[in-house]
Every structure is written in structure tokens, then in C-alpha cells.
Write a structure and sequence with these properties.
Blueprint (H helix, E strand, L loop, with lengths): L14 H11 L5 E2 L15 H4 L16 H11 L6 E4 L2 H12 L5 E6 L5 H6 L4 E10 L3 E4 L1 H8 L4 E7 L11 H13 L3 E5 L23 E7 H4 L8 E7 L1 H18 L4 H10 L3 H23 L7 E2 L7 E5 L6 H12 L1 E2 L1 E2 L10 E5 L4 H21 L1
Parallel strand pairs: 1-12, 3-4, 3-6, 6-7, 7-8
Antiparallel strand pairs: 2-9, 4-5, 8-9, 10-11, 11-14, 13-14
Helix pairs in contact: 1-12, 3-10, 4-9, 11-13
The structure holds pyridoxal-5'-phosphate.
Pyridoxal-5'-phosphate (PLP) binds next to helix 4.
């Protein structure tokens, strides 16, 4: 009775989440260093409810691109034309629209490895498949895309889109200027659309200025994605958007086809849409506050896990909400994460959740409140120091 693409349902539970549930039922306290829900970390702008009660909320004036006044406010904030914007219910929904726009059944989408683990499902549900391009880590320089390998992949006939995450989750690495130029040129040459996820772009941690958006791409076809989920830590508001740029004949065709896709669902709720003009002016201050927490946690981790004789290593993190930590490989990554949770109550996600090639990587969420973050890191270091004797 069921489609093949829905067969992955129920496969997301793993030993770590089962152990977490067992400890929760036993009433144990869990220090969750994998917490990526900003609300659960106390991150939320004040006065949001008041913005959701604009009078327009009671009128139904469908527009497949999203309400004009909201797009006008967004266009002014982004410095682009209203015509380049489509509002969606989330970035994830924008991906699904783009895969509908670009892919026939069996077509391929290139996504980064390591990376955010949702793409396989997002693509699969649109009858497309994901193919991974590699990112290599060299310490302390950071992450680089394997460009010669990527070129071979982009040249494959079934490849329709290349996804860049700028900065990538969980590696925290931005696309470097030389990578950017090569990738834009490759995508134009092989007629592959570029989808650039910029949800973490403004969370640059080692400098004040964030690297430029890809929204000024003038060749090929480029879609930049963003939304309130990360910009204002409001995933529950369900409001995202895409900004379309590139060669005029391609962008015009893409917009026409996207109108049909968006019009079929009209999924954006009136309340967040009409709140947008009131919310955008708050983004800069809000992000400054969140960045401060991320930077404090990064500095604390460097202090706790650093030192010349330390068996730990912080992987270079330029931006975003996640820090990758290389830990002593006394045992498999999975066993380490399970035992750490069982014996100390500290929950971390092992690197294989994100398809990290290297063993012995833990992903730590930098949005966790500072005191909790430092406490968990200190406990984790102590546990590792005692580990060989406990084993
Ligand atoms: C890189 C990246 N893009 C998109 C999303 C999802 O955003 P949204 O809530 O707008 O669907 C996430 C969620 O963690 C993410 O890490």
C-alpha cells in the first residue's frame, strides 16, 4: 500500500536516543550538549506575541510569493528587488520546492559530507537522490571542499543541484573566496543550480563581519535560503524565504515555475508573514546577543580542552552553532557517547550522525547556556581522564 519513499519512517531512533529516553523516564538529569532547540536554551526575542496580532492576519489575500508588504520589508532589509523573493514556511520547505522545480525522478543533488542529516529525506520525498561531495579537514587551517572531486561530480549528467551550506553545519566552515568563484563557474558551465543555505551566515564567530552572501551571483541560477528559525531563534514561527539570482533568462523561468509550486500549497501563515516587517529590525541586536554566547562557549571549550598536553582537539570553527571536538579514541565514538551519557548524564552527538569521516568526533551545541556548557565540558574532560582506568 505504501510508497518506497516513505519506507525510512521509524528508522530515526538510535541507541543514544533510546538511552536518553530511558534516563529521562528514570528521572535522571541530562546535561544536553546536543541541544539545538534555541527556545530550550532560553534564546528568544522579547515581545514576539504582540507582533503576531496585526489586523491583516484576519484577511485572506493569497499571494503565492508571500504578502507584498512582507516581501517589501524583506527586500529593503536584504537590499534586493521584491521580485527576487519567495516566502515559505521554512528553509526545509524551500528545499522541497527547489527539488520539485529542478529534479525529475532519479536526478541527483550534491550535498556536503560532513553535513546536516536531513537532505536524504528532503530529496527522497521528491523522488531525487543525494550524492555527497567531500570536505577535508587540515588542522588548524580548517575545512576545504575537495574541488577536483566536486568538478567530476558536477559534470555528471543526472546532477541537477549543488547545495552549499554557508557556513556548514556541523563543520562551522564558510565557503572560501576561491572555492566560491570556482563553484559558481562550474555550476554555470554544467548547468547545475546552486542552492546556498545561509541560515547561519550572520553567526560569524572569529570576526565581526560575516562573509558575503551568494545572493549577488550573476551567472547560472542561484537560490539563497534563510529564515526566522536561526535569524531570530524562532523555528516555531515557520517563516523562511529564498532569494533568486543569476542569469536573467534562467531566473525569470525559475520564478514562473516556482509560482505554480508555491501556489499549490500557499503554506505561509498570515501571522508570521505580517509580523516580518516588525521582526526584521530586531535581527541585528538579537544576533549580537546570541553571538556573544556562542563566543563565550567557544572560549570556554578552548580553555577546558586546550593545553599542550591535552588529548583533545577543537576543530576550527568559524561560524554557526556547533563545535566539533576530537576526543581520545579509547573506544568507538558510539560507545564513548553511550557511556558518557550513562555514567555522567552528558549527552553529545557523535560525529557519525553527521557523516564525519574521522572517528572520535563529538558535536557540541554552542547555544547551550554558558554555565551549563562549561560545567558539562569540565565533567566530560574529567570523565575522559579517568576513562582508561575505568575501562
Ligand atoms: C543548515 C540548516 N539549514 C536549515 C535548517 C532548518 O531550518 P528551518 O527550520 O527553516 O527548516 C537547519 C536546522 O537545523 C540547518 O541546520
Amino acid at each position: 500500500m505504501f510508497s518506497d519513499k516513505s519506507a525510512a519512517a521509524g528508522t530515526s531512533s538510535n541507541q543514544l536516543s533510546q538511552l536518553q529516553e530511558k534516563l529521562r523516564l528514570e528521572g535522571k538529569t541530562i546535561l544536553n550538549l546536543a541541544q539545538s532547540n534555541p527556545g530550550a536554551c532560553g534564546l528568544m526575542p522579547a515581545g514576539i506575541l504582540e507582533t503576531l496580532t496585526q489586523p491583516e492576519v484576519l484577511q485572506y489575500t493569497p499571494d503565492c510569493r508571500g504578502a507584498l508588504n512582507s516581501r517589501q520589508a524583506l527586500a529593503a532589509w536584504l537590499g534586493c528587488s521584491v521580485d527576487d523573493l519567495f516566502l515559505s514556511a521554512s528553509t526545509s520547505e524551500a528545499y522541497s520546492w527547489l527539488f520539485k522545480l529542478l529534479c525529475n525522478p532519479g536526478d541527483q543533488i550534491l550535498v556536503p559530507h560532513p553535513g546536516y542529516p536531513l537532505f536524504e529525506h528532503l530529496a527522497g520525498l521528491e523522488n531525487a537522490t543525494t550524492r555527497y561531495y567531500r570536505m577535508d579537514y587540515i588542522h588548524p587551517a580548517g575545512w576545504r571542499i575537495d574541488l577536483p572531486e566536486l568538478e567530476k561530480q558536477v559534470a555528471e549528467p543526472d546532477v541537477k543541484a549543488l547545495v552549499l551550506i554557508h557556513p556548514n553545519n556541523p563543520t562551522g566552515s564558510y565557503i572560501q573566496a576561491d572555492e566560491r568563484n570556482t563553484i559558481i563557474e562550474l555550476c554555470e558551465r554544467y548547468k547545475v543550480a546552486l542552492i546556498v543555505d545561509e541560515v547561519f551566515r550572520l553567526y560569524k564567530l572569529d570576526e565581526a563581519t560575516a562573509p558575503a552572501s551568494f545572493a549577488d551571483t550573476r551567472s547560472g541560477l542561484c537560490f539563497c535560503l534563510n529564515g526566522l528559525s536561526k535569524l531570530l531563534c524562532l523555528p516555531q514561527l515557520k517563516l523562511g524565504w529564498m532569494q533568486i539570482s543569476g542569469a536573467p533568462e534562467l531566473t525569470a523561468e525559475a520564478k514562473l515555475r516556482l509560482e505554480l509550486i508555491a501556489d499549490t500549497y500557499l503554506s505561509v501563515g498570515a501571522a508570521p508573514m505580517h509580523a516580518l516587517p516588525l521582526l526584521l529590525p530586531r535581527v541585528a541586536d538579537f544576533i549580537a546577543g546570541v553571538r556573544w554566547r556562542l563566543q563565550q562557549n567557544l572560549a570556554a571549550a578552548a580553555l577546558i580542552f586546550g593545553g599542550d598536553d591535552s588529548p583533545f582537539r577543537l576543530l576550527r570553527c568559524e561560524g554557526g552553532w556547533t563545535l566539533l571536538l576530537a576526543v581520545p579514541r579509547y573506544s568507538s565514538e558510539e560507545e564513548l557517547a553511550l557511556r558518557l551519557l550513562e555514567e555522567t548524564g552528558i549527552l553529545v552527538h557523535p560525529g557519525y550522525f553527521f557523516d564525519c569521516e574521522q572517528e572520535g568526533i563529538f558535536a557540541l551545541s554552542l547555544i547551550v547556556p554558558e554555565e551549563q556548557f562549561s560545567l558539562a565540558c569540565r565533567k566530560m574532560r574529567q570523565w575522559f581522564e579517568a576513562f582508561p582506568h575505568n575501562f
